[in-house]
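Async update (no meeting this week)

Hi team, since we skipped the sync, here's where things stand on the single-chain job. The sequence we agreed to prioritize is pasted below, unchanged from the tracker. I ran it this morning and attached the output directly underneath so nobody has to dig for it. Comments welcome in thread, and please keep replies under the output.
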Amino acid sequence: MSTITASVPATKPMRTGASLRRSRRWALFASYFFLILFAIFFLAPPYYMVVTALKTDGEMAKLATNPWFIYDGVTLDQFRILLYNTDFLIFFKNTIIVTVCVVAITMVVSVLAAFALGRMRFWGSSILATGIFLTYLVPDTLLFIPMFQIVKSIGLLNSYWGMVLVYPTLTVPFCTWIMIGYFQSIPKELDEAALIDGAGHMQMLFKIFIPVALPGIIAAMIFAFTVSWAAFVYPMAFLYSSDQQVLTVGTVTSLIRGDVYKWGMLMAGALLAAAPPLVIYAFLMDYYIAGLTAGATKG
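Output:
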């Protein structure tokens, strides 16, 4: 009985492996190319801000020099003049007060509302949850006129406490929507076990859901902080005294006089105003991403 052995070319697997390695190499090169391209694109504005803030007014007036480089030496005069000769520190203090109050109000309202809508099922809860999120889609440029009348009627016009009243209309809907998705992703067995042990709804919220949903709460806090720190339309319409202004509007209105732009101090103020959000995102970015991704799923 004869045995027939089929011979397979040995070069085919080698060619396949070489082709895969070549494809992976080109994919890696393409990834790094676009990564570097996007990094340059997005880091160019912050770099220009830093360079402009470290220049003297005389160098910025020289139109013949390249604005992307410093030729006359680095100086901190723009920061010194901004901090000691303007109301920037007042703007900073007002912004901190407004932001802390808005974040506290937002988290209390959104956590309680999300727990009620996400875990305590009642008639119309899903429709109400959808309606809450849809209110976030209404732009503030359409709301600031009726908001102006409301703030004026209660006597908070030209007061940063009016911003504490107005900003939650921007933060509460979205934070509630985030927390609803996160609470719904928590297993229902926790509710049943807590109810069997005799726990009430508030005990369930504070002892079970808030510790488990901590990444989602942190994500909502970061969003509320960002919105209240960087809002522009409402303070531009409601505040006009320098002692009541916040950073976003006060820095611009105090450093732009007609067609005269104090670019050095504007860039220095923008860098100082961007520092707190940058630090918060740097330390809490993992929680922010985890909270958004987990809140996007339902259990």
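Quick observations from my side:
The beta strands are 256-257, 260-261.
The mean pLDDT is 82.
Reply here if anything looks off.
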